[in-house]
Amino acid sequence: MEALSNSLQPYKNLVAQTASIVTILQFFSGVFICRDIYNKKSTKGISSMPFIGGVTISVLNLKYGLLLSDSAMITVNVVAIVLNLAYSVFFYLYAEDKVGEFMKPAGIGAALTAVLLGYCEYEHPDYLEFRFGLILTVLMLALLGSPLIDLKEIIRKKDASSIPFPLTFMATLVTFLWLLYGVILLNNFMILQNFIGFVLSLIQLILLFLFPGNSSVSSPSKKKKAKSTKRD
């Protein structure tokens, strides 16, 4: 791993800048979900978790970036917080069950954020980076892998439309780039976090192409099939 890191050192800034740009582009993929909500005038079948979880994880990652004094992580997560807050407000405006669909998940996210930021203030500095990084890894992987909770149903119904294609596609690219950056930094948490995240995202991407379902934002293959059907 150290040899690979050394060979990639000349590309450190390039990888960091590319990862930052692609990550910021990933945050804009939420626009497609919001467009779908606007077209339906409803959040039915769409979870608030990508947005609420995005705010929560971004705030905690911002804290981790400050601990590492890493400007790339700090910039990316500030943008992520702003955009995910905007998406969350949009979701709230169209949610029929505002308490069940939005307020409860948002309350859990806010409580979790407060507890973990409080923990950072009391943990010993010598252990903080390691332990906080471990907590972040678990939370990020849980968020990335959450669509796979319904894996049996997806395979049984041959419908993966519950998985948001724009977010999944971009997450696959982003986790790969941050995996490279983690290797360059020899940061074990970034490596573990993004390697598993890449695998989870790739699995979901494969499912979307195998079982595109009926979602208007789920997969490009669905759109191609629809156009073909109309011509016939």
Describe the overall structure.
This protein has 232 residues and is mainly α. The chain is built from eleven helices and no strands. Helix 4 (49-68) runs parallel beside helix 6 (98-122). Helix content is 81%, strand content 0%. The protein has one domain. The chain has helices at 2-8, 12-27, 30-40, 49-68, 71-94, 98-122, 125-145, 151-157, 165-185, 188-210, 220-231.
Describe the SSE topology:
Elements: H1 2-8, H2 12-27, H3 30-40, H4 49-68, H5 71-94, H6 98-122, H7 125-145, H8 151-157, H9 165-185, H10 188-210, H11 220-231
Helix pairs in contact: 1-9, 2-5, 2-9, 3-5, 4-5, 4-6, 4-7, 5-6, 7-10, 9-10
| Cα-atom radius of gyration | 19 Å
Q: How would a crystallographer describe the biggest sheet?
A: none
**Can you tell me the number of structural domains?**
1
- % residues in beta strands: under 5%
Helical content stands at over 70%
Order of helices and strands: HHHHHHHHHHH
Transmembrane segments: 14-34, 46-66, 72-95, 102-119, 131-151, 163-184, 190-211
Membrane topology: Multi-pass membrane protein
Subcellular location: Cell membrane; Golgi apparatus membrane
Function: Mediates sugar transport across membranes.
Nutshell version of this structure?
Keywords: Cell membrane, Golgi apparatus, Membrane, Repeat, Sugar transport, Transmembrane, Transmembrane helix, Transport. One of its GO terms (cellular component) is Golgi membrane. The chain has 232 residues and is mainly alpha-helical.
